[in-house]
Write a structure and sequence with these properties.
The protein is 33% helix and 27% strand. With 318 residues, the protein is of the alpha/beta class. It has two domains: 221 residues, P-loop containing nucleotide triphosphate hydrolases (Rossmann fold); 66 residues, Alpha-Beta Plaits (2-Layer Sandwich). The relative contact order is 0.13.
Length: 318
């Protein structure tokens, strides 16, 4: 008999209105201990509102929210001590050094000075800011500033960590450092809620994902499960200088092909199911004496899932 996973967050029939706008529409979410849970959606989908309700920073009209098995309210201080929050906007004090900032935020939860000192030093080492402890935030690069923001949110060893687009506008090295850090925190026992506009990040670190649109949950599952929901199973891209109409029609009539696009000397053929799609496509080109350049085949990505399910392109937000 399998053990039932421990529920960390349970949102039931959540409704939040702003006047006539229904921001959250009877949302149900369950996040289990040990998950890295991706919360995705286009701008205005309700992600931030959901997080604010989850933290009891916003009141809501209907529904319930439980964290660690207890109802979440504005005065649930024992529960809030177990939560770490890293928002997209940097929230540190310019007047304090790196060390002082982390010490201040850790001090909101840990009063014992010796214990806090050890936690602060551990957080500094964890995010790789050992050489910058005496720096003020205005002297840090964007990537280092993001690391400081994370250190301030995790120094007190929270059991639930909420990260809202923590890698926006950072360099690749810092982004990798942040993602590796999130995975390490998860391995050490933290449950993580993660939002991002970078689909490759979500594919890399999230064990389960929910997609929101217009305040509703429209899909949920692992990355593999979500990919099975969509029509596209393979996309073939071929560089070629021209595509006669008769060849376009021949490609469109192939088995399992449901879309053929030619734009800026790039042929894109989308397929649903089937095997040997690439061989059939190349055979049509060769029979029609069409010369071509680079050829590459792609399996569906999380971005394909998002685009097909929501009808919106989730572009990187800088």
């Amino acid at each position: 008999m399998e053990n039932t996973p421990e529920t960390v967050v349970k949102i039931s029939s959540l409704v939040k209105r702003y006047g006539d706008l229904l921001a959250i529409d009877h949302l149900d979410l369950q996040i289990n201990k040990g998950e890295v849970f991706g919360l995705l959606g286009p701008n205005g989908s309700g992600k931030t509102t959901t997080i604010n309700c989850l933290l009891s920073l916003l009141s809501f009209d209907k529904g319930s929210i439980e964290i660690f098995g207890k109802e979440m309210t504005p005065t649930s201080y024992d529960t809030k001590r177990k939560i770490g929050l890293i928002m997209q906007n940097i929230a540190v004090f310019d007047e304090l050094t790196v060390y002082e900032n982390i010490d201040y935020f850790c001090g909101l939860y840990v009063s014992d000075k010796a214990q806090r000192k050890a936690l602060v030093e551990e957080a500094i080492k964890f995010v790789g800011l050992d050489e910058f402890t005496k720096f003020y935030p205005k002297k840090l690069s964007g990537g280092l500033l993001r690391r400081l923001n994370i250190a301030c949110g995790i120094a007190h060893k929270p059991e639930l960590i909420i990260l809202d687009e923590p890698t926006v506008a950072v360099d690749p090295q810092s982004r990798n450092k942040i993602l590796e850090g999130i995975q390490q925190l998860n391995r050490e026992g933290a449950t993580v809620i993660y939002t991002s506009h970078y689909m490759e990040e979500v594919e890399q670190i999230c064990s389960r994902i929910a997609i929101l649109d217009k305040g509703k949950k429209i899909a949920e599952g692992s990355c593999g499960e979500l990919k099975q929901l969509i029509k596209n199973t393979e996309t073939v891209n071929i560089e070629l200088p021209s595509l006669p109409q008769n060849v376009h029609s021949a490609l469109a009539s192939l088995p399992h092909v449901y879309e053929v696009r030619y734009d800026d000397e790039l042929l894109t053929v989308r397929c649903s199911g089937g095997r040997h799609n690439l061989i059939r496509i190349l055979d049509v080109l060769q029979k029609n004496d069409i010369s071509f350049g680079r050829v590459y085949s792609e399996l569906p990505t999380l971005n394909d899932v998002f685009l097909e399910i929501t009808g919106k392109e989730l572009r990187d937000k800088e």
